[in-house]
């Protein structure tokens, strides 16, 4: 029985065709886009599999086969407030725009922080108005838009590991766990023994990876009272720091999962009369512009944002051409500043 023979059964996808033909998804995409760089045997196998599965080319795939929009979507799954609060998004967007400009491709920002925005984004993207999607700040819970776009066949590459779609969507990510381990080891090397952490959201790969690295490095010294949740906003860093001062008043260091939350922690420590770094060392993650705007300046883990955005574009353009998606994890680098006692002015 074919994939579509039963009434109400799921519409066959490119993946179904690839499995039936015994070829990669990229090979099927190349056949659908005109058959360039496909061997005669593979072409015959794919054409037979299309007939056998009953696969029908969706409007987006057909538009790709005949024309290009020469536009890529920067899909930000956050609220508009977060767009303006977190400088990382504008850095990534600028880098992606520059990289796409080298190929004469335009970038359009699409917000998807609310259900209505997600609906409009899905309809716009799957209607063929863009050739591909750069997915930024995806959350595993409460956002079906990622799966819907993926099933539509629109090429998509994520910034960070797309939780739940690790084997289906290509991505470029910083090594969150390794960066967190290095930061905690660094704080321990300074003689700090009660190292707390403010976590990122647990439905994001960055939040999960940085907490994992923290726990691994703390080992037997891990104490649940030294952890407090955040959502990457400065206000959540303030709330978490207040919670930590109640739960673990003897803490002597705080590692926040991003610079904005670390800045919020500094606000609360100052109000509480704690000296930084004498009483409490504070460290963040990202090396965003926030890190050098605080007093004292933040020690942090530098993410290679420029390279991340350029690699995302490179991989996405390859997928649009019919190549298989790739996944890359890039190293982070510790940057020491005054919030942990560094006196040098790092680059």
Structure description:
This protein is an alpha/beta fold and 347 residues long. 45% of the residues lie in helices and 15% in strands. It has 14 helices and twelve strands. The chain has helices at residues 14-21, 25-32, 40-53, 59-66, 80-85, 87-101, 115-129, 145-152, 176-189, 205-218, 234-247, 259-271, 290-293, 305-320, and strands spanning 71-76, 106-111, 132-136, 156-159, 170-174, 195-199, 227-229, 253-256, 281-283, 300-302, 327-330, 333-335. The strands form three sheets. Strands 2-1-3-4-5-11 form a six-stranded parallel β-sheet, with helices on both faces. A four-stranded parallel β-sheet has the order 7-6-8-9, with helices on both faces. A two-stranded antiparallel sheet has the order 10-12. Strand 3, helix 8 and strand 4 (156-159) form a beta-alpha-beta unit. The chain is elongated and about 70 Å long. Residues 1-8 have low confidence and may be disordered.
């Amino acid at each position: 029985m074919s994939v579509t023979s039963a009434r109400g059964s799921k519409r066959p996808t490119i993946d179904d065709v690839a499995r039936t033909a015994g070829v990669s998804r990229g090979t099927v995409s190349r056949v659908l886009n005109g058959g360039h760089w496909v061997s005669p045997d593979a072409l015959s196998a794919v054409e037979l599999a299309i007939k056998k599965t009953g696969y029908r080319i969706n409007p987006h795939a057909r538009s790709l086969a005949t024309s290009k929009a020469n536009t890529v979507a920067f899909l930000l799954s956050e609220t508009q407030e977060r767009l303006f609060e977190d400088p990382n998004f504008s850095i990534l967007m600028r880098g992606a725009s520059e990289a796409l400009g080298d190929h004469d491709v335009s970038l359009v920002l699409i917000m998807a922080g609310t259900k209505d925005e997600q609906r409009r984004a899905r309809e716009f993207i799957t209607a063929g108005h863009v050739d591909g999607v750069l997915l930024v700040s995806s959350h595993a819970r409460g956002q079906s838009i990622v799966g819907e776009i993926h099933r539509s066949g629109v090429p998509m590459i994520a910034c960070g590991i797309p939780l739940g779609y690790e084997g289906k969507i290509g991505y470029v990510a910083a090594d969150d766990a390794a960066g967190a381990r290095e930061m905690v080891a660094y704080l321990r090397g300074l003689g700090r023994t009660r190292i707390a952490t403010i976590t990122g959201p647990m439905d994001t790969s960055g939040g999960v990876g940085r907490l994992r690295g923290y726990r691994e490095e703390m080992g037997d010294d891990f104490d649940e009272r030294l952890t407090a949740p955040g959502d990457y906003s400065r206000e959540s860093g303030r709330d978490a720091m207040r919670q930590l001062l109640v739960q673990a008043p003897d803490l002597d260091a705080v590692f926040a999962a991003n610079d904005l939350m670390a800045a919020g922690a500094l606000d609360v420590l100052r109000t509480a009369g704690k000296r930084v770094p004498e009483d409490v060392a504070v460290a963040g993650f990202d090396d965003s512009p926030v890190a050098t705007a605080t007093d004292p300046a933040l020690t942090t883990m530098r993410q290679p944002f420029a390279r991340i955005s350029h690699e995302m574009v490179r991989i996405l353009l390859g997928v649009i051409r019919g190549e298989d998606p790739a996944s890359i994890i890039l190293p982070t680098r510790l940057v020491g500043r005054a919030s942990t006692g560094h006196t040098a002015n790092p680059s």
